[in-house]
Amino acid sequence: MSEMKKDEIAEDQAQIGDDFDGAAAEIEALRTERDDMRDRFIRALADAENMRKRAERDRREAEQYGGTKLARDLLPVYDALRRALDVATDEQRAAAAALIEGVELTLRELINVFGKHGMEPIVPQPGDAFDPAQHQAMFEAPLPGTKAGDIIQVMSEGFMLHDRLLRPAQVGVSSTPKS
To answer: Does domain 119-179 have CATH number 2.30.22.10?
Structure first.
């Protein structure tokens, strides 16, 4: 072969090699771009799933706890009805039996409505142990025959709204030292 043909063949081979290197680089660039897109797609999918779960949780919480403010505002009504019944004497009960019965029915209906909406009373009894997660100590006093930390008086009942404390029960606690 002539010298010129050898140069042309060498040039063609160099050109083919350059084209091959260029194609390989382009393929590598496309693979990198594909991997980047796949990663971004998977992250976007995960973000969308997290957002869906968060929205579902927020919706459930709003459904369960959305009425918290109204529930707190109704507690003084409950307390007033309870106090009205507690202070009524036997003579007053006899003289105004229908009125007392009406107050009792109203209180019972209010308790039923509370129950329908997930409100449950916390009703401590004297002698129960003080639980700071459910009770609020209004005073401490030494009382013979009790241990320190025992409930000695209940001023008002507390309430739970589903699994959250709506209002702690207000209690008096014994401070009798251990002897």
So the answer is: yes
Label residue 16 exposed, middle or buried (CB < 10 Å: 0-12, 13-18, 19+). exposed
Q: Are 128 and 150 in contact (CB under 8 A)?
A: yes
pLDDT in tens, 102-123: 999 999 999 999 999 999 999 9
Domain boundaries, the chain: 1-65, 67-117, 119-179
pTM of the model: 0.68
Which range (51-55, 59-63, 111-115, 164-168) has the least confidence? 59-63
Contacts of 146 (CB under 8 A, 6+ apart): 127, 152, 174, 176
DSSP 19-82: HHHHHHHHHHHHHHHHHHHHHHHHHHHHHHHHHHHHHHHHHHHHHHHTTHHHHHHHHHHHHHHH
Rg (CA), the chain: 38
